[in-house]
Amino acid sequence: MSPALPAFPPVRPLQPFIRAIALTLSCLIAGLAGAASDDPLLATLDRIRAAYGERPAFTALEASGRIVSHRRGEGPMSRLWQQPDRFRIELGYPGGDEVRVMDGNIATQGGRPMGKPFLLAMRLQAARALLPWNLTAPDAALSYLGSQPSAAGGELDMLVLALAPPLRLVVEIERASGHIVRATGLGIGDLQFATEYSDFRALDGRLVATREDHYAMGQHIGHSTIQSVRYTAHHSPTGTDAATTPR
Length: 247
Fold this sequence. Notes:
Blueprint: H1 15-38, H2 40-52, E1 60-69, E2 73-82, E3 86-93, E4 96-103, E5 106-109, E6 112-113, H3 116-129, E7 142-149, E8 155-162, E9 168-174, E10 180-188, E11 191-203, E12 206-216, E13 219-232
Antiparallel strand pairs: 1-2, 1-13, 2-3, 3-4, 4-5, 5-6, 7-8, 8-9, 9-10, 10-11, 11-12, 12-13
């Protein structure tokens, strides 16, 4: 007679065990998502991306339209940013054209070399021209400043973008829409330059504030209307572009 085989415990089905693991993982993922949404900086950036879309790949960004200056009148306006650190503004005032150029650490106005305060002001202008893409860039040096009630109702979230020292850009974002409604440049002594954004429309398939109201030390000095925006993903074959050459 053969010896009796040892008794083994009954095999339990795996489904309950798998369900327990799945439940644990789902709770972990939900916890991580909740932690991300609780971070006001990340939540604000998510709202910006939802409003403006993902950051496009570009090496040049050009905008054109009209400018109205309380002091100098009305005329055409164009601005061109090029990688890595070139910025050009052309203003066609009735009394004569004005061309401002920044190329790295060199700034000119009408072809004349300008000092450091002018260079810093150009850097702030370039940073405003790159909004919102310099906020959503992977290497953006951002911090969350807080929130405050909006004059139009609702809440504004405030981010600080650290630029080349000593410059900073304080950006106010409407929480309900994700729209950037104001940017204030700091770091040129006690001077403050601000731009308010409104009349949001789609240009070149992307959301753009087509009206920019400009302020210096709290005083309204004029406004710009943006009529076209163009993104370029490459430079010319020669590596130069006549549009960036000071005239």
